[in-house]
Structure formats: C-alpha cells, structure tokens
Amino acid sequence: MPSYAPPVRDIFFAMVEVAGLAEVAALPGCEDSAELAGPVLDEAAKLAAEVLAPLNPVGDREGCVLENGAVRTPTGFREAYARFVEGGWNGMPFDPEHGGQGLPWLLTTAVGEMWQAANMAFGLCPLLTQGTVELLSSHGSAEQKALYLPPLIEGVWTGTMNLTEPQAGSDLGALRSRAVPDGDAWKITGQKIFITHGEHDMAENIVHMVLARVPDAPAGPKGISLFIVPKFLPAADGRPGPRNDLRCVSLEHKLGIKASPTAVMSFGDGGGATGFLVGEANRGLEYMFTMMNNARLNVGLQGVAVAERAYQKARAYARERVQSRAPGTPGPATIIHHADVRRMLMTMKAETEAARALALLAARHLDVAKRHPDEAIRAHAQRQVDLLIPVVKAWCSEVGMATADTAIQVHGGMGFIEETGVAQHLRDARITAIYEGTNGIQAADLVGRKLLRDKGFAAREALASMRSDVQRAERDLPEIGARLAEGVAALEAATAWLLANAERDPHLPGAASTPYLRLFGTVAGGWMTTRAALAARAGAADDRFLAAKLVTARFYADHLLPRAGGYLAAVTAGPQAVMALAEDDF
C-alpha cells in the first residue's frame, strides 16, 4: 500500500488563501514568514515522508516495552527523533531568546499536520513538549525559563502533563497528589495515570508538569498547584544530574498509538520527588490550561492528519481495485467509477480540507492575539481562539475518526485486514475524541464558558465574519452561497435559542452542547470550503487543483451543510427526552 505523500500544495493553499498568511506576515516578528513558508513546508514534507511515515507501521507492530523502569521505543524511533531535533523543528514558534526560531503558529501548525499524519504516535512527543514550553513561557519564573526552556525548545528534553489520577478521571478537583515544602523546593508524592511519553528513551531528560495539593489547600479545583518535576534534577551547569524520585510503574495496553508510551507514573516512593512550584500556589489548574489549550488545538490537528492519511489510502485503493461494472463502462471498472465510492471519497476530501482550514484559522488568530500591536485587535483574536479551540479539538477529531472509518469501508473486506494498514488509522484516531478533555467536555466548554458566559459576544463576532463571506459567495458562487447562508442561519438560530433558554432547565446546556458543537463545526467547515472556492475561482479555468476546490466546496454545500438543520432541531429540542428515562430503564 502507498505510504504518506504530504499534501504540500493543499496545506500551502489553506494557509495562504483560507487562513490568511498575509495577515500574519504583517505582524511584528513575522515579516519573513510568507517567504519562508514554502521552503519550510517542503523540508518538513521530506522528513515526514522519508523518515517518520515508514516507521508508522513499525511502531504499531512493536509498541513500547517497559523493562526495569525504562521504556524502549520501537525500532528507528530514537534515530528519527534525533533527526527531528537536529533539524530544529521543535523550536519553530518559540522565543529566539531561548533558542527558538520565532516563526508564527500558523506555519508551525501547518508543519505539525505532517508530523501527525506521518506518524501520530511519534508526533505526540513534540506536541506535549510544545505545550510545556508554552506553559513555562507564560507562567514560569525567570530562573525556570533560563534553566528549562533552552533544552525543551531544542528538543533534547521533552515535556509531559501529569493531571489525572486513578480515582479522579476528568474531575481534576478530586486529585490527591501532595506537595510539602522542602527548603526552596517541594516534595511530591502521588500517582498519575495516562501520562503520554511519561518515560521513553528518545531524550536525555523528561520534564513532568505535575498537579498536586499543598498543605491547607482549598478543596476542589481551586486548591491545585503546579510543579516542575524533572526526571533528572538539573545540575549547576544545566545538564541532567541525579535521578529524581519518580518512576514509570506500568504502560497501558491500548487500542492504538502503540508507539507512544502511555505511562502510569509514581512520584515519591522513596520519600518524595523534588518539584519546583510554578507561579503561585493554588493556581495550578489555571496555569495548566495554557498547556491544555495548546494541546487541544494540536489534537484537532491530529484529526486532520489522520483524515488526510486515511483519505490517501482510500483514494489509492479506489483507483486500483477493479470491482463490477459501473454505468458507462464496457466491463469491470475500478471502484472509483462507482457513484457511492465517489460519495465516500468526496466526503473524506471535503471534510479533511474543511477541518485543515479551520485548524489553521485558529492558529492564525493565535498569532494575531500574541503579536498584533493593537490591544483591541489582540483581544478580538484571543476571543476567537478561545471560541474555536473546543470546536477544532472536537469537530476535527470527529472528522478524523469518521474519515478513517470510511477508508475501511472503501477498502471493503481488505480494510478489515491489518496488512493493508488502513485499520491502524482508525485505531490511532479513536483516542483523539477522549484525551485532552473528551469531546463532550469540549462541547460543554463551548456552550457553558464560551457562549453563555460572555452572552454570545465572541460567537456573534464569528458569525459576522461568516456573514461577510456569505455575501461574497451569494454574489460570486450563488449555489454555494445559498447553502452556506442556510447553514449560518441555523447556527445563528441555535445560538440565539441557547442564549434565551439556557437558564430555564439546568440540564438544557448539557443536552444541547454536543449538537451545538457539531452544528458549529459543520457550518464553520462549509465556511472554510467556501472561502477556498472564492480564492480558487479566478484561476480555476486552467488549473485542475483550483477547479477541484470549487467542486469540493459545491459537494460540501450540497451534501454536508444540510446536516445543519438536523443539528439545529436537536439543539432546540430541549433536555426532556435526554433526561426522561429512569436510571434502571437504560
């Protein structure tokens, strides 16, 4: 079966024409990004295709092995990670003061799709290190930044987030890990589960970001503090020194991402792991959200990446698999000539392109929020980042799962056979709806925190942007514009209904949140494909790539945007049927 071919032109088009690279290139410090974007994408594509992608099935077959507290990653992973670090890829968006390259998040996110598509299990390691750097850059002390950021940005050290515990699950207020003062440091005790790359052999040190409670802390989420707990305590010269009192006690046996070690970590079995408080005590969950939001954007990107990889395999199989006679063909034809297979491939293609553009749009807003000189524009961009993060995480991950599932269907019985490789993508993709906050939690966040808390202000800003493009599309692409107008109207109606009715029943926001998020994602996806079509329109007559953007947008408008009406009906149905059954009647 074919390996991964990074869709460089698709990514570049989405970055430039849909997400708005020009706006980012006008920001302070980003002046060279437009010129660098093409060469950076080309170089990233080489590493993704030639080094990371061939290791994807290897990692799935071999998995990781825990021996005497040490984790051995699959064949070739250490060498691949060394190539990744040598290329400077880990430091793309970070401050040059600490060794980063200062490139925009828009370009970093575009490149990140390739790492996740080529080898999602591998890509999880730098994903978490990136989040660790963001966290410490925002909340660490000057001394912590000087000590930890250079090796993390270089990639010779990696980072993790240690949140949940066996009894807590997603309820982080139930954490029991403890931290007690010990001179200038703290002694950490407790156990953490589901720690991605909590132990591995690819880097010289692992920096654990650990949530724990200090003495006399308030109960619940307000009593959680955040600590840096390195695997090896840094020596005076910054090199890894003595081993800290922490260990990996087991690895989870998982459905997918088998080359990414998911560790159970024990802290303080020998008396207490040495940790260093980040910021102020009892504000740890607030600080950790910096890392979590970075990760949530990248988990949505994983959905895009898996969708692209699965689509490529399905497309290649459909072009070569001969099965039955298709209308208009004299004999048996390849299955890409059958209308229902075309429907599946078009759905995969349209949703993947829509999800890619939406993730890149969120990254564009992130750059503006960080760099624009005008405070009001920064604030607007940050509101859009906050609004879009749960949509990107949840909707794009669902696109990834659905596309991987459809790829198996295109393959028929062969898709159910591991040797074709397509099943791995579905197994790998399934976790994206769960980790970094389940998609139900993302939906609750979208409705409860991002919509109701600000009384729909950020949502109305996003809808105004959509309406602007609706007007252009109704003029220049009327068939697509009409469908998008209907979808935007459905999202506006659902938004208004929730704002008007959310307080009438305590169960209403929860019952409506998932259909509302799917409505938002579906309409935003149609918005993205419409923007792509508007950009492609001028050159579509003599460029097959651009002509395909018009066809893809029309397919999305005709076949996928009509889902908006069903989601609107589910939002406005209220919670009665959701909550009606007694517990014993399930």
The beta-strand count equals 14
Total number of helices: 19
Low-confidence stretches: none
- The CATH C-level class name of one domain: Mainly Beta
CATH architecture of one domain: Beta Barrel
The first-to-last residue Cα distance is 44 Å
> Mean pLDDT, nearest integer?
97
Helical fraction equals 55-70%
What class do helices, strands and sheet pairing give? alpha+beta
- CATH topology assignment of one domain: Butyryl-CoA Dehydrogenase, subunit A, domain 2
How much strand? 5-15%
How many whole angstroms does the radius of gyration measure?
A: 24 Å
Describe this structure in words.
The protein has 586 residues and is α+β, with helices and mostly antiparallel strands. Among the domains are: 54-87 and 119-282, Beta Barrel (Butyryl-CoA Dehydrogenase, subunit A, domain 2), CATH 2.40.110; 438-574. Helices cover 57% and strands 13% of the residues. The chain contains 19 helices and 14 strands. The chain has helices at residues 8-19, 21-25, 33-52, 55-62, 77-86, 105-118, 120-139, 142-154, 284-320, 339-371, 375-411, 422-429, 439-452, 457-476, 478-501, 508-536, 544-560, 563-572, 576-579; strands spanning 65-67, 70-72, 157-162, 178-182, 185-196, 205-212, 225-230, 232-234, 240-243, 246-251, 262-267, 273-277, 322-325, 332-334. Strands 3, 4, 5, 6, 7, 10, 11 and 12 form an eight-stranded mixed beta sheet that branches. A hairpin with a 5-residue loop joins β8 (232-234) and β9 (240-243). α6 crosses α9. The longest helix is centred in the middle third of the chain and has 37 residues, at 284-320. The radius of gyration is 24 Å and the shape is globular. The two termini are 44 Å apart. The relative contact order is 0.09.
